Amino acid sequence: MNILRLYFKSIGMLLRSHLQYPGSFFMQTLAQLVMEGGEMMVVILIVDRFENLAEWSGSNLYFFFGMMAVSFYLTELFGRGITGDFPGMVRTGRLDTFLVRPRGVLTQVLCGGTDPRRITCIAVGVAALIMGSRLSGIVWTPLKALALVESIAMSCLLILGLFMIEGIFCIYSVKSVELVNAITYGGKSACQYPIDIYPTPLRALFTVVAPFSLTMHVPASWILGKPLYGWPSWTAFVTPLSGVLVFAIMTCLFHLALRHYRSTGS
Amino acid sequence: MRAYLSVFRMRLRMELQYRGAMIGGILCQMFFGLILVALYRALYAGKPQSVPIESVATYVWLQQAFFRMMVASDNELLDKIRSGDISYDLCRPVHMYSFYYARIAAQKLMGSLMRAIPMLIVAFCLPKGWGMTLPASPFGFLACIPALFLGFLCICALENITVAFTMKTLDPRGMQGLLNLLMVTLSGNLLPLTLFPESWQRFITLFPYAQLLDAPIRLYTGVYAPAEALRIYVIQGVWALILIALGLSMWNANRKRMIVQGG
Asked: Do A186 and B32 touch (CB under 8 A)?
């Protein structure tokens, strides 16, 4: 609990420091809104032209898009320390100072960054979710709401875990490894559409290696009333747990990697 | 003139140094291309369009291959603006706009060619409907090359306009973010312009962003007949002139009222 309090306190301080430059903050937040709005526009244009994607209707696609946008940008908002700042911490040697303080390194990294500009991206995602749910005619029950919350929370952990891969590589190679973007940002682009439209190799990648389809598509399709692969409804609650699994594995690996950490010495 | 040519050459060589980053970039870009092609194939399976899927796949691959040409920016210059070191450049006996135009041109040219050539070779080897196809006609291919060059002039001019905005605001992220987004959307990187609604396409293809890669790709895939090439060149050429003139006037205005940061 102490750690949580510490975390929220640092995030609050960072937020206030971001707001010290209101002009720049406003411009950047606006840029983020336009960016995510542009992505949303692409989905709308695709739905306008093609109407359906395999057995998914256009309104279902908005729902999937909203799930991905909300999960991804919530992670970026609260986990900026890992999703963005970590390579810089290794390169400049800022990580050294974390090692001597009486708190976990991961906690301190997480406390070290937030990205409040993403709030507009989350707003676009929420709008897409509402639009998708209205147009698809979802009848909300407490169970479905629970599945949605669990799915988003687990997806956030999964995304955090995937970004930690980049951090782990970074501890060894100092330079950030662009290739990892393929499964983080690539996963975002690919999995904002339902997984079953992709050929088997891509499907395997996003089910086994980076299980976006388990944390996101299985519960989402159950909520939409079209279970993925016809799986029974209990899977909608069990498969998202793979997110916490990935996060746990990556946390262990991260701590193992830290043992090999050699400071850049600057 | 010699000064600009030599800065162009030096920058070309410097860009050649980052081969490791290049391989990572290529693999990443290929992966994105693959995802997009898979998505469009799934969409086409439900409802085929007038534009054939082979042409959409070619569009995606060419966009991904030349992605670096669009997003590469001169970080050194942006740092100089932020730190105030730009004042040293004001003392140089060269024309600043041309100097940085030559630099950015070299960076974008080498960066994109180094990535595009291996990527396009791989894309040609992919099975039909997944990879690149040959150009619609030999004339289409020939017509595409000058169009690519004119588009390249436009991209470099656009980059210099972004920098001119940064000189005013000092913080590159807001304005650069907005302009980059316009670029990614309206140049057909997020969604091929050929798949935009027809009524939009008539306007969008006249915008400067469509001149960068969309026009050459359309000549390549035969959406524009080679006979139309001259009309396309005129549109591109006019935009290149407008963008360079706009950038020049912005840089000159900035020179007169430059705020130098730091001390």
From this structure: yes
Look at residues A68, A216, A221, A98 and name the one whose alpha carbon lies nearest to residue A167: A98
User: Domain boundaries in chain B?
Assistant: 2-256
Cα of A50 to nearest chain B Cα, Å: 6
Q: Check if B197 contacts A (Cβ < 8 Å).
A: yes
- Name the helix (H) or strand (E) containing A53: strand A52-53
Tracing tokens 């140094």 back to the chain, one arrives at: B17
Spacing of C-alpha B185 from chain mean position: 12
d(CA A216, CA A64): 8
Q: Are the CB atoms for A87 and A170 separated by under 8 Å?
A: yes
Residue B226: other Cβ atoms inside 10 A: 18
For A191, name the nearest residue in chain B, comparing CA atoms only: B35
Residues for chain B: how many in total?
A: 263
CA–CA distances in Å: residue B156 to residues B100, B174, B246: 10, 20, 12
- B120-129 CB contacts, 8 Å cutoff, 24+ apart: B120/B61, B120/B62, B120/B65, B122/B30, B123/B30, B123/B33, B123/B61, B123/B65, B128/B54, B129/B41, B129/B53, B129/B54, B129/B57
- Assess if residue A110 is contained within a domain: yes
Q: Tell me how far apart the alpha carbons of residues A140 and A134 are, in angstroms, rounded to a whole number.
A: 10
- Compare all CA atoms of chain B with the CA of A50 and give the residue at the minimum distance: B47
Per-residue model confidence as pLDDT tens digits over B151-179: 999 989 988 888 888 887 776 666 777 77
Residue B261 is given by DSSP the state: P
Tell me whether residue A264 is in a domain. Answer: no
Closest by CA to B144, choosing from B211, B244, B54, is B211
A266 located within any domain = no
Q: For residue A177, give the chain B residue with the closest CA.
A: B24
Query: A179 and B47 in contact by Cβ < 8 A?
Result: no
**β-pair partners for A53:** A56
Question: B65-106 pLDDT, tens per residue?
Answer: 888 888 777 777 887 877 778 788 778 888 888 888 888 888
Contact (CB<8Å) A24/B178:
no
A64: containing domain: 2-259
Domain-embedded: residue A265? no
User: What does the pLDDT average to over A155-163?
Assistant: 91
Dihedral angle over CA of A255, A258, A259, A265, nearest 10: -170
**CA A171 – CA A190 distance, rounded (Å):** 28
